[in-house]
Amino acid sequence: xDIRAQISMMFHLDKCIGCHTCSVACKNIWTDRKxxxxxxxxxxxTKPGTGxxxxxxxxxxxxxxxxxxxxxxxxxxxxxxxGLLNIFHNPHLPVIDDYYEPFTYKYLDLIExxxxxxQPTARPVSMITGKPIDIxxxxxxDDDLSGTPDFARRDPNLANLTPAEQEAMFQLEKxxxxxxxxxxxxxxxxxxxxxxxxxxxxxxxxxxxxxxNQKVCRAWRMCVTACPYKKSYYNWSTGxxxxxxxxxxxxxxxxxxxxxxxxxxxxxxLGVMLYDADRIxxxxxxxxxxxxxxxxxxxxxxFDPEIIAAAKANGVSDSTIKSAxxxxxxRFVKEWGMALPLHPEFRTLPMLFYVPPLLPVMASVSEAxxxxxxxxxxxxxxKWEDDWLYNTSTEELWGTIDQVRFPIQYMANMFGAxxxxxxxxxxxxxxxxxxxxxxxxxxxMKPAKVKATLADVNLTPEQADxxxxxxxxxxxxxxxxxxxxxxxxxxxxxxxxxxxxxxVGFGFxxxxxxxx
Length: 516
Prior knowledge:
With 516 residues, this protein is an alpha+beta fold. Among the domains are: 3-252, no CATH class; 367-476, nitrate reductase domain like (nitrate reductase domain fold, Orthogonal Bundle). The protein has helices spanning 21-30, 59-62, 80-85, 96-99, 108-112, 163-170, 191-195, 222-226, 248-252, 258-261, 280-284, 291-298, 305-313, 318-325, 328-335, 367-376, 382-389, 394-398, 408-415, 420-441, 447-456, 461-472, 476-479, 487-493; strands at residues 3-12, 43-47, 66-69, 72-75, 103-105, 124-126, 178-182, 201-203, 210-212, 232-235, 240-243, 268-276, 340-341, 352-355.
């Protein structure tokens, strides 16, 4: 076993309110400069929707990620041969219109405009050319527009939904949507690293954070093509590629990344996961219906004495192992089985996991049942009829998983490689915790029903309480378990020979002063 440590993340989508505070925090710190105006290392999308850049999930267009080739895998749109063929013209790169042309306003026109009959306006101007433009797109242009034909109906995840399922989603009176925050997944099998001709992209050994060495980058932009999540960007001013660095300077100082620290809904969790690097190829090349299982099997139990011994033998520090044992991500992903990777079919083995949204549960009644009861209720008072049809008693309110507002297959296309049973299992656990907590706080549930609901998803009342606590009442240090940085180990990993070929990180070629 080749046991390594990976900083991993988990987002609880039932708690995201779509406020974009995370995006603004990241923008202000990392991409508020020339050439990076259009970059949003953290962005929040409305689903269903086309996302940012437009239809990033459609790999028939962008050729990102990996595909199987016999018993192995190969990059879908990059690699040695494809890179050579597309070195001067890459048709699979997103263009600026797929993102949006960044703009600002000529605010001085409001102040310096001479007296006239018309009200002066601040014209939008491009932040790239400086010329006036007509605004046609933005990073969250489709915010909350889940029912529109221009955005929601062009979502690639709708491809295998029946027309009836799609229409049920888009009826105005039943419009349903949820928010999907995204950052770089810092994958275990990153396509961006494999595609880079200059070797500028690498995965840090101590925590698995994927970075781009700005001194080595030669702007081939193969990483932009190869990343199926489109989280590698090209800076048109510096001529370098850039991406989310998981705020590693903050992590090394014991602070949570900016997007996570600022999250209003407290949907974000961060912790260490131990994994077996020897199983990466096996997991990434697995049949599509086994991808999620193989990836989760790679993630190891940090309490197992054999795993601990093997991790120490491979250089993993005691403090990192302790952090892995306290990791909230481990609990959600492995212990409780409630968090899934986004688009595992891309085969990059992403280390950002999501708890799929259960979404509000609405009282519902079948058309046949309603018609039958209406015929019997003619003599009844109108108020009694309305009360029955829109029953919000406990038994009616919880209903079944199939009665929630979102088709299971849609979320299976995002989080389960098309396996609806896996998403259903997670949603049932979320529902079971709700039912259990309703019984604890209100006490109007039938004890037998509560017990049967928990047993059906293999949860004990104690586990349901732990899930509830970590989801809603967790302290800051419980949501973010950050391992101490070991600077002495990082220094040992550097090559101080002065040879440029041995340089790592962001271009260190000389030993830093011990006092710094």
